[in-house]
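Before a colleague's protein record goes any further, I have to sign it off. Would you go through it and say whether the fold makes sense for this chain? Take the sequence as given and treat only the tokens as open to question. The record follows directly below this note.
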Amino acid sequence: MSESATPGVRVPEPLAPGTADPELVELEKEPAEAANLFGAQLDLVRAFTGNLADQGEILGLIGPLELPRLWSRHILNCAIVAPLLRPGLVGDVGSGSGLPGLVLAIARPDVNFVLIEPMERRVAWLNDQVAVLGLKNVTVVRARAEEARLKHPLDQVTARAVSALGKLIPLTAPLVRSGGELILMKGEGAQREIEAAAKAIRKYGLRDVEVITLGAGVLPEVTRVIRATVD
């Protein structure tokens, strides 16, 4: 820390070139697409986004420079997946900050969600948001996915930024009923992940494995989802 010329006054260290000051980073303005994706649930997702913006960095849920793209890169990136969900019981593995689990629960109040997260601090955050937002369709379970003991098999399971597909399949497929689906959010390398996970796909009886691209022409960045049916 630099020494201050005035006692008790902290002089901040100079920022490295190209580094933004987190205190000056502002939350991204709500995109117009939010109203189309959330409809009557818009106020709820606004509240959640505000809470995540206020507390996310402090709690280690999001990076310090995510605010300028929080809506487009995270909230809407998750919400665009909502039409792929069917009424029933959907699990979200590695829910963390609530992306995508809480966002999808807000967008789809007709679907029941089980958010599976092993870290106590993140579980506390998830439970707090469920209570504050009054989400009646969400249950939070503290567990590692491979150790989760759910009352009922899932109709579908989601995951975002958890692990490579070959490692993610053993964590998710056993939680899903026969005929249920994996809805796994992935990046540009989604098709390559499918090819690399051929052994796990066979072992866990997945079929109709495909990459779905969502949000083209609607969002700044498309969302890629690997969807597969569990036999």
About this structure: Strands lie at 89-93, 112-117, 138-142, 154-160, 176-186, 206-214, 223-230.
